[in-house]
Design a protein that fits this description.
The complex is a heterodimer.
Chain A (H helix, E strand, L loop, with lengths): L2 H14 L8 H14 L8 E2 L8 E2 L2 E2 L18 E3 L14 E5 L4 E5 L2 E5 L5 E6 L9 E6 L5 E3 L6 E4 L5 E5 L12 E6 L5 E5 L6 E4 L5 E6 L29 E2 L9 E3 L11 E3 L10 E2 L5 E7 L6 E6 L5 E6 L4 E8 L2 E6 L13 E7 L5 E7 L10 E5 L2 E5 L5
Parallel strand pairs in A: 16-17
Antiparallel strand pairs in A: 1-3, 2-4, 4-5, 5-6, 7-8, 8-9, 9-10, 11-12, 12-13, 13-14, 15-16, 18-19, 20-21, 21-22, 22-23, 24-25, 25-26, 26-27, 28-29
Chain B lengths: L2 H26 L2 H17 L1 H4 L4 H21 L20 H14 L2 H12 L4 H8 L3 H18 L1 H12 L1
Classes of the chains: A mainly beta, B mainly alpha.
């Protein structure tokens, strides 16, 4: 190599390395090192979960995994999406946006929408756009994550529940007796075209879930006027589309319809002033969640802060299998595998600097309620960071800067 | 990690982050990736700090950055969605041609494989001897020499004007 070219190469590297280190590099590094030391969030590609955090929400999706929890394995959870709450007020310098995991790169992409609920295959997401005004009403659409293109859904909006094959979205609303201006039921949206059609169902109080075979099951509110005996089928609310399937007579206690979003307060803001509403994507409580193998469904019985209670029932019979009391302030965000749930601890009234401001993901046995592993991270309100080594679909990558 | 070791690690991060960031920039060519790379390497370093703190920790971090970058590059190269920096704007009317040459060289470096780029960075930016480059790359010094030769050949292929410019300058 000539000295001249050598000098040019050195000059090129010097020029390349010229920019000053970003502000916050040291503090960010130290924070990351501490977090990294405490835990790593690593996915084995078969278990994917997302959690709500701080003033934002995420979505959860778990696919088949049957092994028991191995505390020494280093973890296998990846956050698939963090999303701001539609309709919330935002600062001009921090407009609505969501972060979605791109499994191809293991990195997160930012999309300028709230309410993002990623599809199980992470190629698409339901997003919410519009300012919520008369001139620019709130609307939902199907986002192609790779291209950024959104196909807006007309005529209906609701809580999005993706089909297992990511080809359809069921929109569920606890308020709409009339949707699509045609009748009672739920809206089924084709993800490719964003065209919605009515799924007629006479008792739309029940919460929809998809079974692994692609059928939709409705976990009904046991009785709107009087409590139903546990395990007894009051309204075997069931609708299967496109093919009939077995009935899913699971009952949900009354008064647990998802019309009470969680409210949190921010440190420094006088309690009880609510500043944000949080829901957890498709797991907006008490939306039930079916186990990866389709045999069980978990739903929230009591949302209490001190002792939230969930039931696990058989999807084939509706029989109650387990009742678990979760650690205080926890909520179920998904199934970890056939025998374990992932719960998320979200402090409601954290004291600044207190230990309980840490957010914790726990993996809990559905049979014993025992916490088998916890994944902890620090969070400051207004800052959410999941820095995770991820492997999704066999592709490894680095997922950093997830925080807002 | 005890309090003393933690304080020692934090002092190292404070003292060396900026320099490591510069190295990361030469490895990645991307500011955000460089920041991620430094932070990730240091986070991993912390786990082994008790063992390496007295044994050239910066070399350990540098090697970690190279390994991580090679892994990232491999995973990204399997898929098309790679974050990219904006291409540099075209430069015109540069009487000396120096800027054009610099941009051409920067673009050529960007298009090198991560391994070729790393070996050139360690050798010509860090000015490391072949043996230390080999240690960081996890190969022998002989392999490093051949990789440098190959990387330079590839660089000339990607930026043939470099040789032309050099020849023109030589005849002036």
């Amino acid at each position: 190599m000539s000295n001249d070219l050598e000098q040019r190469l050195r000059a090129a590297f010097d020029h390349l390395a010229g920019p000053l280190a970003p502000p916050g590099l040291v503090s960010g590094t130290l924070r990351k090192a501490r977090q990294h030391r405490r835990r790593q969030l690593v996915t084995a590609g078969v278990a994917i979960a997302a959690v709500a955090a701080g003033t934002y929400a995420g979505a959860a999706a778990l696919t088949g995994r049957t092994s028991t929890v191995d505390a020494a394995a280093g973890g296998d959870i990846a956050v698939t999406g963090l999303s701001c709450q539609p309709g919330a007020a935002y600062q001009p310098d921090e407009p609505p946006h969501s972060r979605l995991l791109n499994p191809a790169t293991g990195r997160y992409v930012t999309v300028p929408y709230c309410g993002a609920v990623p599809s199980p295959d992470l190629t698409k997401a339901v997003v919410t756009g519009g300012a919520g005004s008369k001139a620019d009403p709130e609307k939902q659409g199907i986002l192609d994550i790779a291209t950024g293109q959104v196909r807006w859904i007309s005529g209906v909006a609701g809580l999005a529940v993706w089909s297992p094959d990511s080809r359809q979205v069921l929109l569920y609303t606890n308020q709409a007796a009339q949707i699509l201006h045609t009748g009672r039921g739920y809206a089924l949206v084709d993800a490719a075209t964003a065209v919605a059609r009515l799924v007629p169902f006479q008792n739309p109080r029940g919460a929809p879930v998809w079974l692994p075979d692609g059928t939709i099951a409705i976990v009904t509110c046991g009785c709107p006027t009087a409590p139903a005996p546990r395990g007894e089928v009051v309204d075997p609310g069931y609708y299967a589309d496109p093919t009939p399937g077995p009935r899913v007579p699971v009952t949900l206690p009354p008064g647990k319809r998802p019309d009470h979003p969680i409210r949190v307060t921010t440190p420094g803001v006088p309690d009880p002033a609510p500043v944000e509403e949080v829901h957890t994507g498709r797991n907006w409580r008490p939306l039930p969640m079916v186990s990866p193998d389709g045999t069980r469904v978990v739903f929230t019985v009591a949302e209490g802060m001190d002792a939230p209670v969930v039931d696990v029932a058989a999807t084939s019979t509706g029989r109650q299998l387990h009742r678990i009391t979760l650690p205080a302030y926890n909520e179920v965000v998904g199934w970890y595998d056939a025998d374990h749930l992932i719960t998320h601890y979200l402090p409601r009234h954290p004291a600044p600097g207190a230990k309980d401001t840490d957010e914790v993901l726990s993996i809990i046995s559905v049979s014993t309620g025992k916490v088998e592993r916890t994944v902890r991270r620090d969070t400051g309100y207004g800052t959410i960071e999941f820095d995770a080594d991820v492997t999704v679909g066999g592709v490894s990558g680095k997922a950093t800067k997830v925080g807002f | 990690m005890d309090a003393e070791a933690r304080a020692d690690f934090e002092a190292f991060v404070v003292a060396r982050s900026a320099a490591l960031f510069r190295t990361a920039l030469t490895l990645t060519g991307h500011r955000q990736q460089a920041e991620d790379l430094v932070q990730t390497a240091l986070a991993r370093t912390m786990r082994h700090w008790g063992r390496i703190r007295t044994d050239r920790p910066e070399a350990y971090v540098r090697a970690a950055m190279v390994r991580i970058q090679l892994n990232w590059w491999r995973s990204r190269s399997r898929r098309p969605e790679t974050p990219t920096e904006p291409l540099p704007e075209a430069v015109t009317d540069d009487p000396t041609g120096a800027v054009d040459t610099s941009l051409a060289l920067a673009e050529a470096l960007r298009r090198l494989s991560a391994r070729d780029r790393a070996v050139l960075s360690l050798r010509y930016f860090e000015d490391l001897p072949h043996e230390e480059v080999a240690a960081a790359m996890g190969c022998s010094a002989a392999t490093v020499r051949s990789q440098i030769s190959r990387a330079l050949r590839r660089l000339r292929e990607l930026a043939p004007d470099l040789e032309t410019d050099h020849a023109e300058e030589a005849t002036r």
